[in-house]
Design goal:
The protein is an alpha+beta fold and 279 residues long. The chain is built from 6 helices and 17 strands.
Length: 279
């Protein structure tokens, strides 16, 4: 079964977050999809089936099914654009549907995702303390301007801001203990962030939940950051840029746009590149 390998949210036609994209006439069984995802061994592989003018999509990490994956959706958009043409398409998820726009930008495949409704909420202090204990930074390294919260974008993401960029770059964590804590609250990634200015953020994303140490580009977490900024009032609307994966030598660039309407859909966009079989 052919699986396309596509790097989403690439930066100047390099880097990005690799995803598998598998297209078939009928949806495979969960067992088959999990086996393929394990074989591909990327953080996620997307499985697509055409349903009328729409596409049914499911996402699997090497360990489990994921409700939504931004970078695998961007990669899927690139594949759909190549196979079915540029335009706007509906993707049917397990818990709703989203729209993607597939275009070309300066010769690169460019896809935008309009998310499900979003929201954010506070986190129990005891839980926060346990999370911090599992990471290489401590409470004194937190940017107190930004409270730690959970933001939902189709998945739950824990949002943590640090006040020093170097601490973010040096981030490490205890994989097993953090994985247990993430599973307890159904948190898919932990976003460790540094604010360069109100429109530019640097990010690293711990992904123990999916059996992967770190994600080089996380579209779902980018949407969650937009929701976090809107819901807390730090940026009620507008555009932001997120640079991620640079510390992994997989530079990635994500663009997020959102309106001031509470809980409304948020758009994340980025370029993609096909990964050669020799890579």
């Amino acid at each position: 079964m052919k699986v396309e390998r596509i790097a989403a949210f690439s930066y100047k036609n390099s880097g990005g977050n690799p995803a598998g994209v598998h297209f078939s006439d009928e949806m495979l069984s969960e067992k088959e999809m999990l086996l393929i995802a394990k074989d591909v061994n990327y953080s996620e592989t997307a499985f697509l089936v055409k349903v009328g003018d729409s596409f049914r999509i499911r996402y699997f990490s090497p360990e489990t099914e994921i409700a939504f994956c931004g970078h695998a959706t961007i990669a899927s958009g690139s594949f759909i654009g190549e196979k079915f043409g540029l335009g706007t398409y509906e993707l049917i998820l397990n818990g709703g549907s989203i729209q993607i726009e597939v275009s070309q930008n300066e010769g690169e495949n460019y896809t935008s995702i309009s998310s499900l409704k979003t929201h954010s909420k506070d986190v129990d202090k005891e839980y926060i303390n346990k999370i911090i204990d599992g990471f290489s930074f401590n409470k004194e390294d937190l940017n107190e301007k930004y409270p730690i919260r959970i933001a939902f974008s189709g998945n739950n993401h824990l949002i943590i801001f640090l006040k020093d960029k170097t601490k973010m770059q040096e981030m490490q964590y205890d994989f097993e203990s953090i994985k247990v804590l993430m599973e307890k609250e159904n948190i898919v990634t932990i976003s460790i962030l540094y604010e360069e200015n109100e429109n530019l953020y640097h990010s690293r994303n711990a992904f123990a939940y999916g059996g992967v140490i770190e994600d080089p580009a996380t579209g779902s977490a980018a949407i969650a950051l937009g929701e976090y900024l809107r819901d807390t009032g730090f940026k009620k609307s507008g555009d932001i840029e997120i640079l991620q994966g640079f510390d992994m030598k997989q530079p990635s660039q994500l663009f997020v746009s959102f309106s001031e309407v509470s809980n409304s859909s948020i758009k994340v966009s980025g370029s993609s590149r096909y990964i050669s079989e020799e890579a």
